[in-house]
UniProtKB/TrEMBL annotation:
Start and end residues of each Cytochrome c domain: 69-149, 169-248
Transmembrane parts of this sequence: 15-37
Transport as UniProt keyword: yes
Keywords: Electron transport, Heme, Iron, Membrane, Metal-binding, Transmembrane, Transmembrane helix, Transport
Pfam families (alphabetical): Cytochrome_CBB3
Protein's name in the database: C-type cytochrome
Keyword Signal part of the UniProt annotation: no
Amino acid sequence: MSGANANNSTNIKDVIVLVAAAFIGIPLLIFFIVKLFTGNVSNSTMTDQEVLARIQPVGLSKASEGGPPGSRNGKAVYEAVCASCHGAGLAGAPKFADSAAWAPRISQGLETLVKHAVGGFKGMPAKGGAADLTDDEVARAVAFMGNASGGKFEEPKPATSGATAGKVDLAAKGKEIYESTCVACHGTGAAGAPKFGDKAAWTPRLKAGLDSLIASATQGKGAMPPKGGFAGSDEEFKAAVSYMANAAK
């Protein structure tokens, strides 16, 4: 009998242990599952490279907000794009208003800094990853950041208003839009896009006239999305198509 009682006592203890483990383990399991699916992970564990990967734009960047392409000032571009890295000094980016970090860069001059920012430099992608920025907008952002750390740069000003100035601006805008958006495919002829400057590839497309080509490109054709993914006005996109067409004549 004593053996049976001992066995019963052991069985009861085992049951108690299992019940206790269930009460403790199930909530913990639920907690970890919630953490897994909500992605509630502390940013303090992320490396600079992981942060850069996370902030890479998908499609159009926030630079497309706040005004038509070419119109945004340095402060607006900094807040929409550059602050992601320069605000905290991630991945070697000189931190905003850090005079010691910016001094050797300011000494290189605005032209060199803009060249690096437009083309990409070390861990920074071209135009900070915002392909919809114009070169002038990048220059304004660089000037704004440099001036916050003691620089004396002048931000490039938007074109003067007026009918004549507007036409000149659109002509220059076509080149800017090509270099920031269209070059991704037309620069190399990727996905069947007629390569920039390739007269043989552009001639059959221009037979129906420039207006017909612009209408087709605006709506999207084949692998090309409407306006090639460009978020600006139809008039600006027309200037980009005209710029590419003229380069193949």
